[in-house]
Amino acid sequence: MKDMLVLYRLIEEYGYNEPILLKKVKITELSQDSVRQAFSRLASKGLLERFSRGVYYVPTDTPFGKSRLNPKKVYEKMYIRDGENIFGYYTGLTFMNEIGLTTQVPNLVEIVTNNDRSRGRIADIGYVKVRVRKSEVEVNKENVKTLQFLDLLKQVRVQDLSEEARDLLKNYVRKQGFKKAEVFSLAKGFSSTVADRLIKSGLIDELT
Fold first, then answer.
1. How confident is residue 2, by pLDDT bands cut at 50, 70 and 90?
2. How many helices (H) and strands (E) does the chain have?
3. Phi/psi at 168 (5° precision)
4. What residues contact residue 137 under an 8 Å CB cut-off, 6+ apart?
5. How far apart are CA 145 and CA 133, in angstroms?
6. Which of 31, 44, 155, 198 is the most buried (most CB within 10 A)?
7. How far apart are CA 175 and CA 177, in angstroms?
8. Which residues, in sequence order, are CB contacts of 119 under 8 Å at separation 6+?
9. Cα–Cα distance for residue pair 102/117, rounded to 1 Å
10. CA pair distance 22, 50, nearest whole angstrom
11. Cα-based distances in Å from 181 to 65, 152, 159, 178, 185
12. Angle at 45 between CA 39 and CA 46, to 5 degrees
């Protein structure tokens, strides 16, 4: 009975083929120990699938057997966002590839997040390698895009980019509508190199 209550609540809150982080599951009628035990029993019955330690999902049946969970859903939920709550962002080659600054396909995903204290560790999320490091400034819904931009300047000298890439970056900054006051305020949380590169980049004219 407890097991089916847990399964019903999970389907109601998460649906199918969505990552469920066991440590975040709260069911008011049950203790955390009871919830953990229910997860274990449901997994043994095939009603829940274990993706990795502490990560589960409610599977669906396919012509090839039980559905598989997309690792991207897992690392985004762990390190970038959970619903409307944003606590991380893509960085490095991952972000540069996303906005078109490079065609190089990264061999790992790079993420900056509030949810890790390391300076850069590699986590295996399914078949994907993810490098995560702690954010120098607390990430939230309001500042995430600006922090992502400043983090890019930490890694790239704009002057070293091709003319095409510089134009693309200027267009990106213009479209985001970054505000000069906010950019310089958040830049204080980074090393002085970032502010210096921002000044020398020629991107200040694109800030509002």
1. confident
2. 8, 11
3. -65, -40
4. 143, 147, 186, 189, 190
5. 17
6. 198
7. 5
8. 133, 134
9. 29
10. 10
11. 54, 18, 23, 9, 6
12. 85
> How many residues can be counted in the chain?
208
> From residue 146, how far is each of 11, 50, 89, 107 by CA, in Å?
36, 36, 11, 25
* Per-residue pLDDT tens over the stretch 162-194: 999 999 999 999 999 999 999 999 999 999 999
Q: Running DSSP on this structure, what letter comes out for residue 189?
A: T
Q: Which tokens in the block code for residue 91?
A: 């960085």
Whether pTM > 0.70 for this model: the answer is yes
Under the banding of pLDDT at 50, 70 and 90, the label for residue 37 is very high
Tabulate helix, strand, coil % of the chain (nearest 5). 45, 20, 35
Structure tokens at 148: 């992502």
H helix or E strand, kind and range, residue 128: strand 128-134
Structure tokens at 94: 């991952």
d(CA 187, CA 177): 16
Which helix (H) or strand (E) segment is 125 a member of? strand 121-125
Instruction: Name the token pair of 150.
Output: 């400043």
Q: 96-108: buried (b, 16+ CB within 10 Å) or exposed (e) per residue?
A: beebebeeeebee
